[in-house]
Fold Alpha/beta hydrolase.
Amino acid sequence: MGRKYEMKKRFLLFLGIGLLVLGLTACGTTSHQSTTARLPHASKYEPTLFFHGWGSSYRAEEQMAHSLVNAGLTKTIMRATVSKHGKVSLAGQFREGDYHPIVEVDFKDSRNSNPRQWGRWAKATVVTLQQKYHLKKFNVVGHSMGNMAIMYYLLDNTSKLPKIQKQVNIAGHFDGILGMNDEPNQMKLDHNGKPEKMQADYKTLLQLRKTYPKNQITVLNVYGDKNDGSHSDGSVSNASSQSLRYLVSSRAKSYRERKIVGPNAQHSKLHNNIQVDRLLIRFLC
């Protein structure tokens, strides 16, 4: 009886050790895959990150992302989900030789109204991708509050992070929102795009006139006009969107604006607008 007991005890001991080793090996493999990916020619990869608007999600980015896939820019769409605490989890992965993947960024706390926090989340996303894929450069597309994520990201010290090559701003409320701190046809811009009246966030963004990367970023600013006399997309005046020019044009590699006109130029429809898709294809492909 004692001998059988000893044999059973040894068997359970060896089994426990074996399972522990197997578990540690599996954990080590998972950890490695989550932190780094060995892709040849890492410097060739130039992903495009999409940032959605306030109260929205990655679903607002779907049509634009798929239009780029259909145009032949990439075959890869992956997602970066950012918790309210800034933890980033990635779903999907870059594919070898597919140098222009799309990353749909999904902010879970999308009703947070602090633009600086959105900038921190954008930075957390970029840092995570840099650690995993050793990125050197990337592009950004923002809609509505997603533009503030980009702008406040740029306000941060990004010298050690991958470089933005192309920046697309869609329906940006850089100097106010209608009904909150702006009204139709009230905002005036001078010949340089400088607003006569500046909101608090815009005053903060003025730092970019000195720190925006010099001759590095090609900028496309897209805004909507419902053509109803308000000179707005229904939520943001054209002047507020166009005030981006004063912030970045003197330092950008190039800066251009495109106005979308008509009912489908309404603020929340711009990310599902075929004309916007075509502009993105021409600009990014």
